[in-house]
Amino acid sequence: MRLLIILLGLLLTTGFIVTPDFLAEQKKYERVKAAYKEKEAGVQKKLSELGLDLNNFNILITVFKSEQELVIYAKNKKDKQYKKLVTYPICASSGDLGPKRKQGDGQVPEGFYHIERYNPSSSYHLSLGVSYPNKSDKLKSTAKDLGGDIFIHGECVTIGCMPMTNDKIKEIYIYAIQAKNNGQQNIPVYIFPFKFTESAIAKHKSYTTDNKMLQDFWNNLKTGYDKFHSNLEALNVAVDKAGNYNF
To answer: Exposure pattern of 158-182 as b/e (b: 16+ CB <10 Å)?
Structure first.
């Protein structure tokens, strides 16, 4: 008994205290609780159609700016290949095609990111923070202030973010916090200007006619786009000294 008391004292003094899990913390918020009450059954059904379980899956997100689509892929934690789970319409947009390079340009970023923040009490209902600016953005921009606070969020308004209706952000938020609670530390978010099909490339060719820098950047993104869609496996992304992505 004395030994137990000593051990407990050590745990308290060193700060090594077991805290509630991530999901339990999130569910303390009214919007998250309401989202689960309304959407959990539908989320479970969608996962089960792919043979996946709510407590044993990972996700990957792709975004296409021109098509205004956000696509969620999912897989069993132990699997390598993802399966397309659901496609959501992005309900508003700002800026133009091309990367975000500075604060205030209104641009939605383009590149390879991950979810880094989970906000259950966002001003935009629920929101998931995207890891902009990444290393590539910092190397390719000459601006003193690249901006930040890029989110996938609700309320269907935006300046540089990826807004959803409140109805849809509830589902997306559940997928994301469940995946994190399942042990997925980094949820990939791949943001493309458009789907790199031959017809789409031809349609948007005018953007790069007199802009070799943008042409090279999009060709770099296309390499990652092609690699992911060829095998549906998460990309191993690195960035070289010039800010180009390597896969």
So the answer is: bebbbbbbbebbbbbbbbbbbbbbb
Residues serving a catalytic function are: 153, 161
pTM (2 d.p.): 0.91
In the chain, the domains with their CATH numbers are: 19-194 (2.40.440.10)
Q: Are 125 and 114 in contact (CB under 8 A)?
A: no
What would the DSSP string read from start to end of 76-109? ETT-SB-EEEEEEE-----S-SS---STTS-PPP
pLDDT at 15 over 70: no
CB 235 within 8 A of CB 227: yes
pLDDT (tens digit, 9 = 90+) per residue, 67-83? 999 999 999 999 999 99
Contact status, residue 85 vs residue 50, Cβ threshold 8 Å: yes
Residue 240 phi/psi, 5-degree rounding, is -85, -175
Token pair of 138 as six digits = 């910092």
